[in-house]
Amino acid sequence: MPRCFLSLGGNLGVVDETFDQALERLADVPAIEIISRSTTHRTVAVGDDAGGEFLNAAVEIATELSPLELLSQLQAVEDDWGRTREKHWGARTLDLDLLLYGVSIVEHSRLRVPHPACWYRRFVLDPLVEIAAEVVHPERGLTMGELQSRLCKRPLRLALAGGSENLRVALIHTLAESHSKIEIKHWKAAPAEPVLVAWLGPGDTSESDITLDDLPRATRLDLADCSEPPTDLRLIVASMLGE
Fold it and tell me: Rounded to an integer, what distance in angstroms lies between the CA atom of residue 212 and that of residue 216?
């Protein structure tokens, strides 16, 4: 069976008890076995509507379920604890995310695996590294330990590629004001190995020769279809900093 990893999060109610009971519920499913669990981490809430401090943990399971069948089980447990999904960065009783399903890459309307944000969110990586530091991200080509250690360096080095020059300048200004521990530049002027390269879509004259495929696979993040780049990128950077 594939090595599968889940992320647990929550900041409403008695979260430690919720985690214990949710895992007991999953363990009662005949096709799921709990293999290991990280310690519980206290993490800063990300987002203006996220509420107070979160608790986060990671779990390894073995399962005979397919990725979509497993997703249905996870969502059923979330629903039992009153999980609502109106806000992407909102407060919640219980969040159960499927991070990795072996080396599988799943692109489905209901599910993307590996979880598209698991490689840059400290509140996911910090507990995950406790139990899976050596596991390689199937798309990024780096281990979970390597992905986490890159995010611990200061300043956190970021780059912007594509989009209009006005958009890039505005984003650099916005992020520099919001976060003092980052260094952010245009891709062509960036350090050799930024931790993240945000792709903003086809560029203007100065960036017209760059495409998403030109950017390093391990660090690129496609924001071309993002409706609010300043807000979304600010929250993404906050999740990378973990502070």
Answer: 9
Burial of 109 (0-12, 13-18, 19+ CB in 10 A): exposed
> How far separated are the first and last CA of the chain, in Å rounded?
36
Domain count along the chain: 2
Q: Under a CB-based contact definition with an 8 Å cutoff, are residues 229 and 166 in contact?
A: no
Asked if 31 and 118 sit in the same domain, the reply is yes
Residue 121 CA, chain-centre distance (Å), reads: 4
Q: Which residues contact 20 (CB under 8 A, 6 or more apart)?
A: none
Residue range of the domain that includes 198: 153-241
- What digits encode the pLDDT tens for the residues 187-242? 888 767 899 999 999 877 666 678 999 999 999 999 998 888 888 999 999 999 99
Residues 185 and 122 in one domain: no
Residues labelled as active-site residues: 83, 92, 95, 97
**C-beta separation of 117 from 124 below 8 A:** yes
User: pLDDT, tens digit, for every residue of 143-202?
Assistant: 999 999 999 999 999 999 999 889 999 999 989 888 889 999 998 887 678 999 999 998
**CA–CA separation, 90 vs 161, rounded Å?**
29
**Residues 26 and 56 placed together within one structural domain of the fold:** yes
From 201, 185, 196, select the one nearest 238 (Cα to Cα): 196
Per-residue tokens: 112: 């993307």
